[in-house]
Design goal:
By secondary structure, the protein is an alpha+beta fold. It is about 35% helix and about 15% strand. It is built from 17 helices and 19 strands. It has a 7-stranded mixed sheet with strand order 1-10-9-8-6-2-3, sandwiched between helices. Strands 11-13-15-14 form a 4-stranded antiparallel sheet. It has a two-stranded antiparallel ribbon with strand order 4-5. Helix 5 packs parallel to helix 6. The longest helix is centred in the middle third of the chain and has 36 residues.
């Protein structure tokens, strides 16, 4: 084996231990599948439980790696272009929280886009940092947000001191990429680290026709959901570090706070396997994925009742679009995205990643094939028969909502006494809960912000259209939690 990237140190030892005949007087309680229920065994077989092992000596320790985990993480760092990489068994959520904890403390300021994922809010709660939110540019045609620009960040830094970090989402859920090179250069001139929520961009490092990765653009920390676009198991992610602005020991100290002390080795081993797959065959696999994406885009453009988010001309705000992410506007059908999603799922066995009021977003990855594309196109052709008179769907420009400034910090809102009041009494009060459509997990109203009628109307429309709202104590929205005075 001449190429070190062909090795899978963690995956290999896990396989050996799974096949080993021993007397297991250790956790988990099913003892290599011997005690697992019949129904689980019928669903998953015995093999997966044989590999469901704890921190045996041969398997190393995730929070103090010195053996196969350390070796596997070093190989991942090299493959993804990082100085240091940590495996995450609790999703990118844990990596985002840890990156904030590693760079910000009580009272420190951090710049973020207002369309940040709720995991960053959790990081603010735990760290006590004060967020300085920037409203990203809004696309009214597709009713979605882009990213933030270096000029917006510069404006913030002119009026705020004690800024300890900048966090950017790139790519967005819809594949829109920020101008990270300019942002990184500007941040570094002020000795501020750039943290990038790159959950949906783990594949960028492995093909020249994809957007530049966050690390290549100069980011100090990049958090990637390896399970979202590559071949790892759900909940398996990575956090990558480069440069000298963030002390790696701070990340190592933060990660045990947000991950189990009994991490699942199936997840960790899947990261090892996914890294090997991409390091060896990534370009070939992604060439096929890009071919499928182009086939799909060409055929969708021929359907006059649909619009697809296409290549974006680079600006100072965004630089590229991941074409493996298909965002389709369905408003010409007179249906909401939620309605179209239900029809596609129930009638045609085609399921999107993200429905919203006007759009459906589909993720194409190395796991898709031509049959999938044919099923998608066939379903989109058939969806025309469900067409209705066009609806007047409310569009809310995020910059019109009272996103900034917060009346109190997320941590203060989390710890504050709260009371439940009827909806009409909650208007113009400080929210005590995050009102958050999921996916994508971006709060419409954040704990600590003022509750407005416009935001509630938009939330109600999402609920009426079949969307799911998380974070609320009353799903009917008849009552809301507010901060007690």
């Amino acid at each position: 084996m001449n190429n070190p990237q062909e090795k899978t140190p963690l995956l290999t030892i896990l396989k050996e231990l799974a096949l080993k005949q021993d007397a297991p007087f250790y956790t988990p309680g099913h003892k290599k599948g011997q005690g697992v229920s019949k129904s689980l065994k019928q669903l998953m077989g015995r093999k997966i439980f044989r590999a469901d092992l704890p921190e045996l000596p041969e398997l190393d320790n995730l929070f103090a790696p010195s053996g196969v985990i350390k070796e596997a993480q070093n190989l991942a760092a090299k493959a993804f272009g990082a100085k240091k990489t940590w495996f995450l068994a609790n999703g990118s959520t844990s990596g985002i929280i840890a990156s904030i904890l590693a760079t910000c403390g009580e009272g420190d300021k951090i710049i973020l886009p207002r369309n940040i994922h709720q995991s960053a809010i959790f990081g603010l709660i735990l760290s006590g940092a004060t967020p300085i939110f920037i409203n990203p540019q809004y696309n009214s045609d597709f009713d979605l947000c882009y990213t933030i620009s270096v000029s917006q960040i510069a404006d913030v830094l002119q009026t705020h001191d004690n800024v300890k970090a900048i966090m950017v989402v790139s790519p967005t859920y819809h594949g829109i990429c920020a101008n990270l090179t300019e942002i990184a250069n500007y941040a570094h001139k002020h000795s501020i680290p750039l943290l990038v929520d790159e959950a949906h961009g783990g594949h960028f490092s492995f093909h020249s026709q994809l957007p530049m990765s966050a690390l290549e653009a100069g980011a100090d920390i990049a958090i990637q959901s390896t399970h979202k676009v590559l071949g790892a198991m759900t909940q398996a992610s990575m956090i990558h570090l480069q440069g000298n602005l963030v002390n790696p020991s701070r990340i190592s100290l933060a990660l045990p706070l947000v991950q189990s002390s009994s991490p699942n080795y199936l997840l960790l081993a899947s990261l090892d396997g996914a890294r090997q797959q991409m390091a060896i065959s990534g370009e070939k696999l992604l060439t096929h994925t890009l071919k499928l994406a182009n086939i799909a885009r060409k055929k969708i453009k021929k359907l006059e009742y649909l619009s697809i988010l296409d290549f974006i001309k680079p600006t100072n705000t965004f630089t590229d679009l991941d074409i493996t992410r298909l965002t389709i506007n369905v408003s010409k059908l007179g249906l909401t995205g939620y309605e179209v999603d239900e029809i596609l799922h129930q009638q045609f066995s085609v399921t999107c990643e993200l429905p919203s009021l006007q759009n459906l977003t589909f993720i194409l990855s190395i796991g898709n094939n031509l049959k999938d594309i044919k099923m998608l196109i066939t379903a989109l052709k058939q969806i025309k028969q469900y067409r209705k008179k066009e609806q007047n769907i409310t569009k809310i420009n995020p910059s019109s909502l009272p996103y900034s400034p917060l009346r109190i910090t997320p941590r203060q809102a989390f710890l504050a006494e709260k009371k439940v009041v009827s909806q009409h009494l909650a208007i113009n009060q400080i929210s005590g809960e995050n009102i958050c459509p999921y996916p994508p997990g971006i709060p419409l109203i954040m704990a600590g912000e003022i509750i407005t009628q416009e935001a509630l109307d938009y939330t109600q429309q999402i609920i009426n259209s079949g969307g799911i709202i998380t974070g609320i104590s009353d799903e009917s929205l008849e009552t809301l939690q507010i901060i007690s005075n």
